[in-house]
Write a structure and sequence with these properties.
Blueprint lengths: L2 H33 L8 E6 L5 H11 L5 H11 L7 E6 L4 H9 L7 E4 L6 H9 L6 H8 L24 E4 L5 H18 L13 H14 L6 H14 L6 H8 L38 H8 L8 E4 L6 E4 L2 H13 L4
Antiparallel strand pairs: 1-2, 3-4, 5-6
Helix pairs in contact: 2-3, 5-6, 8-9, 8-11, 9-11
Length: 346
C-alpha cells in the first residue's frame, strides 16, 4: 500500500469517526432536551388523572397537555425509576416540565379534592342529568338547559344540531368543587371526542353507508341492545347488513326510546308499542333514527366502527344471561324465537 493510499484511507476513517461522533452527540442532546426541556417549566395546567388510569394512559395525558414532550419517554422513565402507581385526582403541573419534575408532582398525590361522578353506559341525556343533579351543588335542570343550548358542541355533532344525546362519554369523572354544569358537559363531550377519535370514528364509512355521527347512532343502538359483551360487534353487523339491503332495522331499543321508557322494567316491547308514531320507531321508519338513543361506551363505539364480517340479519335473546342467537334467514330466526319462548325469554 502506497503512502498516498494510506493517507486517503486515514482521511476517510477520520471523517466517518467525526460523523459518528456528531450523530452521537446530536442524539444525546435530543434525549436531554426531551428529559429536561430547555427554558424551564412553562405555564401551569391542571391535569386530571382518571380513576384506574395506567401509567401508559397517564403518560399520554401529560403529553397531550404539553407537560412532557414524549409519552413513551415518560413511561419508560417511570418504569426505570420504579415510581407509581399514581393516584387519581387533579394535579397542577407545568408545561415543558422535566421528567423528574413531573414524576415528583404526581408522586405527592392529587392537590385538589373532588367528588366522584359515575355515568354508566347506555343512559340517555335525562338520566345523565339526574346523576349530575345528585352531586353536591349541581342541578339536573341546569345541566339539561346547558346541554340543549348549543353552548357546548362535539366535533361529531351535525351542523345546526344542539342535541348532545349520545355524545357524552360514560365514565367516572372526578369533579372539583368549582366545576359547574357547563364545565361537566365540556369534560364529558371532550372525553367522548377523544375516545371516539381513538377508536377510529373519523375514518368510519362502512363502504359509504354511514358517516361518523350515524355510526354513533349505531353504537348507541348496540349499547342498548347488547347484554353479552361478545354480541356487540355482531349486532352492529346486523344493523349494517339490514341498512345495506334496505330492510327495516326493527330494533326494539329505538321503540323504547320513542316511548320514553328508560327503566329496566320497561324493556319488553309489546305489539302495540310497535305502532308508535316516531322517527325513532325503526319498525315503521326505514333507515337509522335521526340521532343516538343513548350514551355508548368505548366498546360499543369500537363495535360500530369495526364490526366482524358476517351475513347475519336477525338476532334474539336465547340465554338467561342475555346472550343472543344470530341468524341469516327468517326460518332460522323463527326457530331461534321458538327456542327463546320455550325458555320463557319472550
Amino acid at each position: 500500500m502506497t503512502p498516498e493510499v494510506r493517507r486517503r484511507r486515514l482521511v476517510v476513517v477520520g471523517a466517518l469517526v467525526l460523523v459518528l461522533l456528531v450523530i452521537g452527540a446530536s442524539g444525546v442532546l435530543w434525549f436531554r432536551r426531551q428529559v429536561d426541556p430547555p427554558g424551564g417549566p412553562g405555564e401551569e395546567v391542571v391535569v386530571e388523572v382518571p380513576q384506574g388510569a395506567s401509567t401508559k394512559r397517564i403518560s399520554e395525558i401529560l403529553d397531550e397537555k404539553g407537560v412532557v414532550s414524549s409519552a413513551r419517554l415518560f413511561q419508560g422513565y417511570v418504569v426505570r425509576s420504579k415510581e407509581g402507581p399514581f393516584q387519581a385526582g387533579s394535579y397542577r403541573l407545568r408545561r415543558s416540565s422535566s421528567l423528574e419534575e413531573a414524576v415528583a408532582v404526581l408522586s405527592r398525590g392529587p392537590q385538589q379534592s373532588f367528588n366522584r361522578l359515575t355515568i354508566p353506559e347506555g343512559l340517555i341525556l335525562g338520566q345523565i342529568a339526574e346523576r349530575v343533579g345528585g352531586s353536591p351543588g349541581r342541578s339536573a335542570e341546569r345541566f339539561l338547559e346547558v346541554a340543549r343550548s348549543g353552548q357546548v358542541r362535539s366535533r361529531y355533532q351535525p351542523e345546526g344540531s344542539v342535541n348532545l344525546e349520545g355524545l357524552l362519554l360514560p365514565e367516572t369523572y372526578n369533579l372539583e368543587d368549582t366545576d359547574d354544569e357547563r364545565d361537566i358537559i365540556e369534560r364529558m363531550v371532550g372525553a367522548f371526542d377523544d375516545a371516539a377519535a381513538r377508536v377510529g370514528l373519523d375514518q368510519v364509512s362502512q363502504g359509504g353507508l354511514v358517516n361518523p355521527y350515524q355510526a354513533v347512532t349505531v353504537a348507541s343502538m348496540v349499547e342498548r341492545e347488547a347484554r353479552a359483551p361478545e354480541d356487540r360487534g355482531m349486532i352492529a353487523r346486523v344493523i349494517y347488513n339490514r341498512l345495506r339491503r334496505g330492510m327495516p332495522l326493527q330494533v326494539d331499543a329505538t321503540v323504547i326510546y320513542a316511548l320514553g321508557k328508560t327503566g329496566e322494567k320497561d324493556l319488553r316491547v309489546l305489539n302495540k308499542d310497535l305502532q308508535v308514531d316516531s322517527p325513532y320507531n325503526t319498525y315503521k321508519v326505514m333507515g337509522l333514527p335521526p340521532a343516538p338513543i343513548a350514551a355508548p361506551g368505548r366498546a360499543a363505539l369500537e363495535a360500530a366502527v369495526d364490526p366482524p364480517p358476517g351475513p347475519w340479519l336477525y338476532y334474539v335473546v336465547v340465554e338467561p344471561n342475555g346472550k343472543h342467537a344470530f341468524a341469516t334467514s327468517l326460518d332460522e330466526h323463527n326457530r331461534n324465537i321458538a327456542l327463546a319462548k320455550s325458555r320463557g325469554l319472550r
